[in-house]
User: What shape does this take?
Amino acid sequence: MAEPMLAVEDLEVRHGAIRAVRGVSLHAAPGELVVILGANGAGKSSTLMAIAGALRPASGRIRLNGRDIAGARPERIVRIGLATVPETRDVFPDLTVRENLTLGSFIRRSDRAGVAEDEARMFALFPRLSERAHQPAGTLSGGEQQMLVIARALMSRPRVLLLDEPSLGLAPVIVDQIFAMVAELKQSGLTILLVEQNAAKALAVADRAYVMRLGQIATEGDAAEIRSATDLGALYLGG
Amino acid sequence: MGFGLQFVIDVLSLGGAYALMALGLVIVYGILKLVNFAYGELIMVAGYTMFLLGGSALPWLVMAAVAVAMSMLAGVLTDYVAFRPVRAKSVTAVLITSFAFSTLLQNLALLFISPRPRPVALPEIFSETVTIAGVVTPVRNLITLAASVLLLGLFALLMRKTVLGIAMRAAATHFIMARMLGVPANLIITSAFAISGFLAGVVGLLWIGRIGTVTPGIGLEPLLIAFIATVIGGMRSMSGAVLGGFLFALIDTTLNYTLSQDLLKFRDAFTFTLVILILLWRPEGLIKGPATGQRT
Assistant: This one.
């Protein structure tokens, strides 16, 4: 097997006395779409935030494109090629849509032509954002904000994209759009690690899946395998 | 008419100074959610730099530029000495270290210069007056007014048009997300302290220009003014700080004009009563600003 784009080994994350993530190992090959499923509080988001550098792992190794990033600052991890779409859908509400995108390209701000090109591409991809380019991002609808956060993450031209619950709280028609777009991003060769409550939809687009339970990996395998072998409803009852 | 004009000039020039003071405090608060209690000492540093350069043959503007540069340096030093080592650990610790740094700077001035007021070189123009539409006004009020308009404009431009400014605004609402986009935490914080020092330096020159002397305790009043102005205007918003500065100046000036000689001694009591009333009406300040704002 080729060297994985992202490899996590024995990751442990603590929130005070609580061990939110206990010895998680996972990997994603270049261009692979990997999904992490599990109930609320299973440690999925904590795992992502530790990879992104927003949480400091208590122990474990994280390698991104062959470089060790465990415990590195988030601003350095982006530069190695990882972009994050957090669960909390953090647009900067009082910045305009365009300013939000500008920040997405912060690490390549010297490449003005490339940034302008990418911005035009994002506006073509998301016409709604283009219409609202000069509006504060806080005035967008939930679905538009999610589009903006994804577009903003792509502005850094990442190799790996972390997506935390991109469909959370969105109308079904928007959820379908988001999943179509995730599939498209995979087509473009991006490596994606997706955390998702909507197991059926996530497994439909994913290559492989991990199921987390109480901070540990309970099951892993091909997306199709997991889909047929697991009672998806039971995933979310914990246990 | 003449009286009205005088009142307006007084409010605007005092308000401009207050607004700059408040902005210098809030730019650090906005990002770190911590009040820099050593802020007043940045003004003191500008004052003593002017005093120490007073004997030299340098033109006044050069001395002023050096003084502002020293304030910026002191601002950045505040970050390295008082904030950075304990920032991630505890709010209480930063509260104490910033007080300690403030006391340390004041005591250095006491020890190495003097507890007594020291004269500061001022250009002639600071003591001249002009007559506008029959109103006699000190030129320094007009300079203060012009300087504040210029700086507020420059500041707005920096925050809206430059990537650093946009990144600082983003960091003020959601620091960790800004970092996950590659904005380095230390760059933002150091810039905030440098801008804070710059504003304090300029305000220091204008402020000390009113009195003509500098003392170790000179920073206390500007710190208090800045703090009150930001509380009235809203701690989370930069436009709030500016609005708060002008409103505070309006209150002060109105009381100066209307209170009788006997009551003028109690002006601050009246001022603070009004501040309390404003806060009872709007506990979050006049401009709320974005709702998020966790610390680093």
Remarks:
- The beta strands of chain B are 118-119, 129-132, 135-138, 213-214.
